[in-house]
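Sample intake sheet
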Amino acid sequence: MTPFVMLTIPGRPQAKGRPRFSKAGHVYTPERPRNAEEVCQGLMREVCTVPLEGPLKLSIWFCFRRPNSWNKAQRVAVDMGYEEPWYTGKPELDNLVKLVQDAGNGILWHDDAQVVELVASKVYGAKSETVLHLSPAEV
């Protein structure tokens, strides 16, 4: 099935930060996650002018740049599919997904509750980026 929306967000994937509380009792989101969410929203607005309706399937690949310490054989083995490219470091996958889902509210979908099927992966790649595919959910 062809995705409704295909989007690549350049840069290292950023996790949704926990809310912080000031001494005066105000709640705020830390600067880095807030900026990352704003970048995501800007790119999402470029590819989707009206929020999508109905149940949706969201596929996300969080790509982290391969370490410079990898030799050529390791890079080729992952690129050719001989070894699994899984990135097992921080940040946690669920926090990465949460930032993307919150950023899409009101832009890609009316509410992230419309996402009824989710496929998400953290992998090594040639460069750091986040790749999204959004399509209608199938029964």
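Comment: The first helix runs from residue 31 to 47. The beta strands are 5-10, 20-21, 27-28, 56-65, 115-125, 129-136.
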